[in-house]
Amino acid sequence: MKLSGAILWDVDGTIANSYMLGYTSTLTVLKNNGIKLITEDEFHEGTRLTTPRRFAWHATGDPDHIIGLGLGEQFDDLYVKLVSHETTPLYAGMKELLLKLSKCEYIALGALSNACGAYVRAVINANDLEAIFKLQYGADDVPHGKPDPAGLLQCSKELNIHPAKCIYIGDSPTDGEAARRAGMRGVGVTWGSHSLETLSSSFDTMAKSIEELEVILDDWIEKNHVELARESTVRRVSWDSSVINNEGMNKLRTDNEKWIP
Predict the structure, then answer these.
(1) pTM score, two decimals?
(2) Which H, E and C letters describe the chain, residue by residue?
(3) pLDDT tens per residue, range 224-243
(4) Architecture field, domain 5-16+90-252
């Protein structure tokens, strides 16, 4: 059966409880470069940004400062090597949920993070999930990091699944903004770096526990089962060769064929 829907995931703070690895590695890089250390709250706030922009913001207050590039490279070199089942464990109940979802043959699972791609793949591998994630991308694998929708749109293109048939799950306001701009349903989770109050306006739906998230996803799959199964036989859509413009938005060319509403 052809794929006709996708559940896409952020990694840190969504799938993996990797906060301490990220925070301590950040402190190490800042200390090695003689830069003032940050608090845990400042670290959590910075997780809205891609790694180079986060370090530029920590170091200078300006996320676009060039210093972030070098600091970000140092961070990636350090913390990717430290990934393990112990340093990036899944949240309790997450693996069971992911394995359950992977058994739905017409739904694809993918991961997109603002961390580097090597880190994403290391976390997935450390938790024995590589077989169930069809896509495993970081910010350096896509044209632009979140909140730009380019990465999510690249995922939907590569899976040949219309963005409206995708869900993106994350723990940061930028995750919700990226999903909204991509035309995907955004589901925010509160067990990561940001509070319900901070997240609620950015997402279509909120989950305060993995049990709540499971109900949301089960409901989405059930409501779309007949339509998704029917769409699995629809002819493949032709995508515009430009793929992504300067705003990071894909442009669909349907050649007089339309997705079934």
Answers:
(1) 0.83
(2) CCCCEEEEECCECCCECCHHHHHHHHHHHHHHCCCCCCCHHHHHHHCCCCHHHHHHHHHHCCCCCCHHHHHHHHHHHHHHHCCCCCCCCECCCHHHHHHHHHCCCCEEEEEECCCCHHHHHHHHHHCCCCCCCCEEECHHHCCCCCCCCHHHHHHHHHHCCCHHHEEEEECCHHHHHHHHHHCCEEEEECCCCCCHHHHCCCCCEEECCHHHHHHHHHHHHHHHHHHHHHHCCCCCCCEEEEEECCCCCEEECCCCCCCCC
(3) 765 655 554 544 444 444 44
(4) 3-Layer(aba) Sandwich (3.40)
